[in-house]
Design goal:
With about 160 residues, the protein is α+β, with helices and mostly antiparallel strands. The chain has a single domain, classed as Glutaredoxin. The protein has 5 helices and 5 strands.
Length: about 160
């Protein structure tokens, strides 16, 4: 009986601890690093930037200040399929950066069924941070000048 009681209380403590760690975690359960994204993703990632993106891509790669970039995307979304692989190639050249990929379903909910705090309405959405403050976004499609140009202008106003 004592063994059963010890087992029960151990399991109960584990369950409660797991629940609270999951419930109050600040990170959505579907945030992925670059390597985790690349492992899961089915899209072809370009190895070089298109000519249109090269000029500002080279400028971005010399970015000195630390930058966080959150990429909200959906595997079902054709704009994500078009822009996220290019973004991976482009943002990977920035030496001082942290990339976070957050996959959303068609209702713009993450896989934990929680609404993102960043008010995401269209995919893909690229959110840029400096010193933990949002400095800009690219929503759905970049301008005609390109993703590299828009990203550079956000990070270097």
């Amino acid at each position: 009986m004592a063994i059963l009681k010890t087992f029960f209380w151990g399991f109960f403590r584990f369950f409660i601890l797991s629940f609270f760690l999951t419930a109050f975690s600040q990170t959505p359960c579907n945030e992925k690093t670059l390597n985790q994204f690349l492992e899961k993703n089915r899209w072809d990632i370009p190895t070089i930037l298109p000519k249109k993106e090269l000029k500002f891509g080279n400028k971005l790669s010399s970015q000195k200040e630390f930058v966080k970039i959150k990429i909200y995307w959906g595997e079902w979304c054709s704009d994500s399929e078009k822009w996220v692989p290019l973004a991976v190639t482009l943002f990977s050249t920035i030496k001082n950066r942290q990339l976070t990929f957050i996959e959303l379903n068609q209702g713009k909910l993450d896989t934990c069924k929680q609404k993102p705090q960043e008010n995401i309405l269209f995919l893909p959405t690229f959110i840029f941070y400096k010193n933990d403050h949002e400095v800009g976004r690219i929503i759905e499609n970049p301008s005609k000048k390109g993703l590299a140009h828009d990203s550079y202008k956000i990070l270097n106003p």
